[in-house]
Write a structure and sequence with these properties.
Number of helices: 16
Largest sheet: 5 strands, parallel
Radius of gyration: 27 Å
CATH architecture of the largest domain: 3-Layer(bba) Sandwich
Number of domains: 4
Low-confidence stretches: none
Structural class: alpha/beta
Oligomer: single chain
CATH class of the largest domain: Alpha Beta
Strand content: 15-25%
């Protein structure tokens, strides 16, 4: 069998190496249009600041190393420009000399990835960060021109990582984001913590800002937006990516959502001898099974591996995606999995939510820091999504939450999880356990909650009485208008101050004291609820 693979990065390289391990006799050919294969595209931003110092550290394999170890034929600077499905041939253009050749396949694997969306063409001062060549070019510009400032357009993963490393390289950076918040996989309330972290490191964050025009000059770039006009020494476009599906479309293959290459559960396209994997395709959501576009290297690698095993030995597999991801933003780790509120509302799915802000490990052990967590669930107790922001321990918690969602274990798995505990690493009641306890309390009716967005209507309804249960000193420093102060430790002795014909709305710093107060009042016959997440999230 002769396999031709279009694209030699995450999915394509993973497929080729796994296939060789499964089939020593197969002919395996990779055509990659860039100058590199199997490179660490997720590490490219860190090359700009010198965190990753050596060029060779960005490249995991080379055509020579892949040939020596796996007996693969690997051609770089080689773009497949057309497919003839009936003739089982492809036409390949050598991008160095312009020559074109034909090649024959028994099975064709499309792994072209995603292509960066450009607002304007690249130039000396206008850059993007998608390939190793992009990273070399941008780092070379920084070294040669020593720019003082930069504008990054787009606040997704690449934009956020790029702006951090430009700041580390000594530049003043402005982020221009067209949507209401950065990191579209997050909800706005959680993204605010991320934007605050950027601002603390000197980044000017401009959300809800539309780029109207870009004028590329010799000495500067002019950027016109609906919030004003700006000039910059350097512009980095990080608006997003789209599936690189034009080759498949040209070959007459069926396309799916967002112009992805449509595939079945075995990644077979509408042509029985052509398969597609990676960022050019969609895959079923691990929550509702609907097609989802999730452009992540980890999933592309898994798809390549499983497809190779299937084609070599018909080993069945099932891959779905949650979009589990994590990104470093200066001193914070920022992670998410599953659906966010915006997605759940768009799908019309029933859901509820909790906020919590526990410590990452035992507070009596030095160095504890706060985790900011949001968990989404439905009224059957299934976990639908989660977002976590913090300094340490974010990866551990998001990975557990991802596994619970993936395996449909529900909130009880969080509550009952037996997690490694020692004071430097966690707490006897881990934040994962705490999330499970909180969801159980909501679902069983032990406690009722309200949210930040409910406050305007609550404050204007005379049936409600806001009660801040923090200390007097905390109350005097800041409190919500209209709230009276009864510290939780005094609550039992001051019940006479609370009328039973009003809904008592309880407030505190992190929702721990307000929860305790709610349990006291509920057992005393009061109608009550507390502010989810407390003032931390408010």
């Amino acid at each position: 069998m002769r396999y031709i693979i279009v694209g030699g990065v995450a999915g394509g390289a993973s497929f080729a190496c796994r296939l060789r391990r499964e089939d020593e006799e197969a002919e395996i050919v990779i055509y990659e249009k860039s100058g590199f294969v199997s490179y660490a595209n997720c590490g490219l931003p860190y090359f700009l600041s010198g965190t990753i110092k050596e060029k060779q550290n960005l490249v995991l394999q080379t055509p020579v190393s892949l040939h020596k170890r796996f007996n693969l034929e690997v051609y770089v600077h080689s773009e497949v420009i057309s497919i003839d499905p009936k003739g089982h041939t492809v036409r390949v253009k050598n991008l160095l000399d312009g020559s074109i050749k034909a090649d024959h396949y028994d099975k064709l694997i499309l792994s072209p990835g995603a292509e960066a969306i450009r607002l304007v063409p690249l130039s000396e001062r206008v850059h993007e960060l998608k390939t190793v060549e992009d990273a070399y070019r941008l780092q070379g510009f920084l070294a040669a021109y020593k720019p003082n400032n930069a504008i990054v357009v787009g606040g997704g993963f690449i934009g956020v990582e790029t702006l951090e490393n430009l700041v580390e390289a000594g530049l003043e950076v402005t982020l221009v984001e067209g949507k209401s918040h950065c990191l579209a996989n997050f909800d706005a309330d959680m993204a605010r913590f991320v934007e605050g972290e950027m601002e603390r490191h000197g980044v000017k964050v401009m959300t809800n800002t539309k780029v109207e025009a870009i004028e590329d000059g010799v000495n500067e770039v002019k950027v016109a937006t609906d919030k004003g006009n700006f000039t910059t020494d350097l512009l980095v476009q990080a608006v997003g990516v789209r599936p690189a599906s034009s080759l498949a479309k040209q070959a007459g293959l069926e396309l799916g959502i967002r112009n992805t290459i449509k595939v079945d559960n075995h990644f077979q396209t509408s042509d029985p001898d052509i398969y597609a994997i990676g960022d050019a395709t969609s895959l079923p959501s691990g929550i509702d099974g609907e097609p989802a576009y999730i452009a992540l290297a980890g999933l592309a690698n898994k798809e390549g591996r499983e497809l190779a095993s299937y084609l070599a030995s018909r080993k069945e597999f099932a891959i779905s995606g949650l979009g589990t991801s994590i990104v470093k933003v200066f001193d914070l780790a920022v992670a998410s999995t599953g659906f966010n509120e915006e997605q759940l509302e768009a799908k019309g799915m029933d859901y509820d939510k909790i906020y919590l802000s526990p410590a990452n490990h035992a507070t009596y052990y030095p160095g504890a820091s706060t985790l900011l967590m949001k968990v989404l669930f439905n009224h059957e107790g299934a976990i639908l999504g989660a977002q976590v922001v913090g300094k340490d321990g974010v990866d551990k918690r998001i990975d557990v939450l991802s596994m619970v969602i993936k395996n449909r274990l529900g909130y009880k798995a969080l509550k009952d999880a037996e997690l490694a505990y020692a004071p430097p690493f966690g707490s006897a009641k881990d934040p994962i356990n705490m999330a499970g306890f909180m969801i159980e309390n909501i679902l069983t009716g032990r406690v009722k909650q309200f949210f930040r967005e409910d406050l305007p209507s609550i404050q204007t309804d005379p049936h409600n009485l806001l009660v801040d249960v923090r200390t007097k000193a905390e109350y005097d420093a800041f409190h919500i208008a209209g709230a009276i102060n009864i510290p939780v430790n005094e609550l039992r002795d001051r019940l006479s101050e609370l009328p039973k014909d009003r809904h008592i709305r309880l407030l505190c710093h992190s929702a721990i004291r307000s929860y305790i107060a709610a349990r006291i009042l509920a057992q005393k016959g009061y109608e009550c609820s507390h502010l989810s997440g407390g003032y931390v999230f408010y």
